[in-house]
Amino acid sequence: MWQGFGIVPWCCLAVAKHGWGMGRRNAFWFALPAVASLGLFLLYPFLDVLRFSTWDWSGLSEPRGVGLENYRDILRDPDFYNSLRITLVFGVMTLVPFVLLSVLLALALDGQPYERPIKALLFLPGLVTLGGAAVAWYTLFSPEYGALASLIPVPRWDQSPFWALVLIMLFTIWRHIGYGVLVVSARLKAIPKALLEAAAVDGATPAQSFRFITLPLLRPAITFLVVIGTVLTLQGYTAVFLLTRGGPFGGTEVLGYYLYKTGFEAGRLGYAAALTVIILLLTLAFALAQARLLREER
After folding, report:
1. Predicted TM-score (pTM) of this structure
2. Which of 50, 74, 251, 297 has the CA that lies 20 to 30 A from 39?
């Protein structure tokens, strides 16, 4: 009766309001463990790093407050700018082929009968432990006694900063290319086939269909890969530590390794904490700028 006239009884409104309040309270309690974990393991350590960055501290001595002096020293430190330059060069060298290969391989494998086995093989390096993978690469590519050196000439990457950076780039792409292909492939399969068929009926060539249909619809996946790749390259450390130790002649001393060397080899933990904050700000700035640029191109 009430529904026929479009009138809802006040008791129904009260029950609905009460149920909404109960739902919000239940959602809060369900989310509380996750929020508490984030606060405990992410927010609290970050606040501690901010506190450490205002200290002159070796980890063993009594900390002495120095305010923003560590940040001023970093901005005047030529080693920091050299490390930043190497990191940016490494990022460009790695990011461009990583994204291009991810897109090209995903396009080449799409719809093929061997698509799944090839994707599994590409993803396999990411499942190997990083230490084991680095040892395998060092054994394979060592210019002196590597297995590959007995078959073909291997550049002396242990004496050339450029070839050492190329080795780190190839290792990084090898470990992550499977993930990039999966991201692009998932987006590729979400593109309606009807759009491509309609374009073909209208006389569009495969190149035109890719340029005006496939590529614009792949842009969210490409944006994601660019942002993730930027974060990985700016914060990269492990591959450099295991393969080159920043050498030769400091040619692979990326920001992550410079942070490790300053904090744990030179014993300047307060300075390293300030460097951590700067690397975090640089990562956020680059990621946000790239995401905004790619969004504006749409």
Report:
1. 0.84
2. 74
**184 pLDDT above the threshold of 60:** yes
What is the predicted pLDDT for the residue at 10?
Answer: 44
Name the residue range of residue 232's domain: 69-296
CA distance 162 to 157: 7
**Residues 30, 102: one domain?**
no
Same domain, 34 and 87: no
Q: Does residue 163 or residue 24 have the better pLDDT?
A: 163
Question: Angle at Cα 266 formed by Cα 89 and Cα 273, nearest 5°?
Answer: 70
The runs of H, that is alpha helices, within 204-254 are: 206-209, 215-234, 238-243
Going from the C-alpha of 235 to that of each of 140, 163, 266, the distances in angstroms are 26, 21, 20
| Residue 112 falls in which region: left (phi positive, over 0), alpha (psi -120 to 50) or beta | beta
- 102 vs 113: CA distance, rounded Å: 19
* Residue 258 contacts residue 90 (beta carbons within 8 Å): no
Report the DSSP beta bridge partners of residue 293. Answer: none
* CATH code, 120: 1.10.3720.10
Let me know whether 28 and 174 are in one domain.
no
Closest CA to 45 of 53, 34, 57: 53
Number of domains in the chain: 2
| pLDDT, position 8 | 45
